[in-house]
Amino acid sequence: MLNHLHKQFAYNNWANNEAFASLDRMSPAPPRAVPFLAHILAAERLWLMRLQRVPTDGFDVWPRWNIEQCEREMPELTGLWDRYLQRLTPDTLKEIVPYRNSKGEEWRNSVLDVLTHVIIHSGYHRGQIAAEVRRFGGEPAYTDYIHALRQSLIE
Predict the structure, then answer these.
(1) Are 129 and 36 in contact (CB under 8 A)?
(2) How far is CA 33 from the centre of its chain?
(3) pLDDT, tens only, 94-132
(4) CATH number at residue 134
(5) Which of 26, 54, 95, 123 could lock onto 49 through a cystine, CB 3.0 to 4.6 A?
(6) Model confidence, pTM
(7) Is 105 within a domain?
């Protein structure tokens, strides 16, 4: 399972960078697309903070970042996730993480469920970015997981 998660997060990082590149090629980027990318990155950071039991009160999951701010956030976030994933053990995946959502509700989920959510959530919003890019006449990023595997873009 740990190897699978490492591969999933490597894919997620690659796909986020592909989505970024599709926006960076447009001038200007579609107005709704950059906020989706900023949300992906902020939500990934928020979930990492929750997993590390860091307080998240007041954390903005819809920051008003421009494309340059998103570009700066991506490598730092990738490094943080890489370090977190390196410390995971099979027992860690079963741990229950208590947290408060953005509505102030208290929840508890396993580490594995949170990690799964992060990957799926990011993919959902990358689809929104692709739709906006296409709607504004650009070429959306081809971020299918199987495409990344076939091209040996992730290991």
Answers:
(1) yes
(2) 15
(3) 999 999 998 889 999 999 999 999 999 999 999 999 999
(4) 1.20.120.450
(5) 54
(6) 0.95
(7) no
| 135 located within any domain | yes
- Domain assignment present for residue 98? The answer is no
Peptide bond into 35 cis (omega under 30): no
pLDDT tens-digit readout, 32-67: 999 999 999 999 999 999 999 999 989 999 999 999
Domain span at residue 40?
2-93+114-150
How many independent structural domains does the chain possess? 1
The answer to whether position 106 is within a domain reads no
Specify the pLDDT at position 55: 93
